[in-house]
Design brief:
Radius of gyration: 20 Å
Bound molecules: nicotinamide-adenine-dinucleotide, zinc ion
CATH topology of the largest domain: Quinone Oxidoreductase, Chain A, domain 1
Number of domains: 2
CATH architecture of the largest domain: Alpha-Beta Complex
Helix content: 25-40%
CATH superfamily of the largest domain: Medium-chain alcohol dehydrogenases, catalytic domain
Number of helices: 9
Structural class: alpha/beta
Largest sheet: 7 strands, mixed
CATH class of the largest domain: Alpha Beta
Shape: globular
Strand content: 25-35%
Number of strands: 19
Length: about 350
């Protein structure tokens, strides 16, 4: 099968090559990939800001159709439509049993070192990226890395639930638990930030202020539910938020992955406010905050994949889409072929797309 491989990082482009997947183990499933979204997280690994074993097949936000299942799989059967999620869970560790599935120890969900790996090329192991490796014509994953969906949800839009939607909506609904009427700032209106914005709208937030450097992104932010926008390339975003709100907001979400904007998010809070870091801040980067702010009960929290319980969340999001309350059609800026993946990452860096989706 054709797959998009990252051979070395940083600096190397992705190459398209032939890869094989193994037969499914007892709890594994094979999925015919229908579509896969291009998420900024992959770019962090390509640029060496995060590290993964190489070579690897990148991509982690996908949907498709089950074509084969292992002997012990009962959750899905061939023909079922599924969304993959990198938040694969074991179901038995302390985090899983206490409901924090994204922090799962993952014991038993991966093939052990020394064992034949799920992916290979010419007999040599290929690392499975984030337990998914979605930029490939088929995926071989643990059954606890998929959520079943109704076949009426178009798979090119379903793919976006695999990361961007679940991360953004979950940051609002699960991590921060934004109450009705609360004031919200979202810094970064890309694929993930737009879903924080629409999550805040659906949660019934009051003011929703979007911050970005590109007017095109801010225009889309309004479509997704932002009530006000700030172009951070023109003015000081912290001062602007404080002016607009008379002192600061209840919740500030960082959806870029920078030290500077994380510190800005915290500085935008009113007393008692919570800043949520959704962006992936590069390895080795430290965040500096004024200590006195903790005397005002301000909080800074991380959010991994929107603190999801994806088998519960994804079907709910699909229902919201069916009812016209969750926007997915507008998230897809471009549908592309697998061989266009490098230009999709370049366009993401340039800021010209909300989400590119690879269709197979
Ligand atoms: N926490 C998680 O589990 C999780 C999951 C998925 C993605 N992420 C991370 O979320 C972040 C966003 O991902 P994405 O796919 O939406 O990326 P994206 O590239 O689509 O969006 C980033 C947005 O930030 C804007 N931006 C960049 N620098 C800015 C600045 N200095 N000030 C204001 N705006 C600025 C860009 O114009 C763009 O609109 C990435 O760091 C990604 O790795 C985290
Ligand atoms: Zn992602
Ligand atoms: Zn677990």
């Amino acid at each position: 099968m054709k797959a998009a491989i990252l051979e070395s990082a940083p600096g190397e482009l992705i190459v398209i090559d032939d890869v094989e997947h193994d037969a499914p183990g007892p709890r594994e499933v094979v999925i015919q990939t229908a579509a896969a979204g291009v998420c900024h997280s992959d770019l962090h690994y390509m640029q060496g800001k995060y590290r993964t074993r190489l070579p690897t097949v990148v991509g982690h936000e996908a949907a498709g159709v089950v074509v084969d299942v292992g002997s012990d799989v009962s959750y899905v059967a061939p023909g079922d439509h599924v969304i993959t999620c990198l938040s694969v869970f074991c179901g038995t560790c302390e985090y899983c049993l206490s409901g924090r599935l994204v922090l799962c120890s993952k014991r038993g969900t991966r093939r052990a070192r020394g064992q034949k790996q799920r992916l290979s090329r010419g007999g040599e192991d290929i690392h499975q990226f984030l337990d998914v490796s979605a930029f490939a014509e088929r995926m071989l994953v643990h059954e606890n890395a998929v959520a079943k969906i109704t076949p009426d949800l178009p798979l090119d839009r379903a793919a976006l639930l695999g990361c961007a939607v679940t991360t953004g909506m979950g940051a609002v609904g699960r991590t921060a638990q934004v109450p009705i009427g609360a004031s919200v700032v979202v810094i970064g209106a890309g694929g993930v930030g737009l879903n924080v914005i629409q999550g805040a709208r659906i949660a019934g937030a009051g003011r929703i202020i979007a911050v970005d450097r590109l007017d095109s992104k801010l225009a889309t932010a309004i479509d997704f539910g932002a009530t006000e926008t700030i172009n951070a390339s023109e003015i000081d975003a912290v001062e602007a938020v404080k002016d607009l709100t008379g002192g600061g907001v209840d919740f500030a979400f960082e959806a870029i992955g920078l030290k500077e904007t994380t510190e800005q998010a915290f500085a935008m809070l009113r007393p008692g406010g919570t800043a949520v870091v959704v962006g992936m801040i590069p390895l080795g980067t430290s965040i500096e905050l004024p200590g006195v702010d903790f005397m005002f009960e301000k909080r800074l929290v991380g959010s991994l994949m929107g603190s999801n319980n994806f088998r519960t969340d994804m079907p709910r999001y699909a229902q919201l889409y069916a009812e016209g309350r969750l926007k997915l059609d507008e998230l897809v800026s471009a549908r592309i072929g697998l061989e266009e993946v490098n230009s999709a990452f370049a366009q993401m860096e340039a800021g010209s797309v909300a989400r590119s989706v690879i269709v197979f």
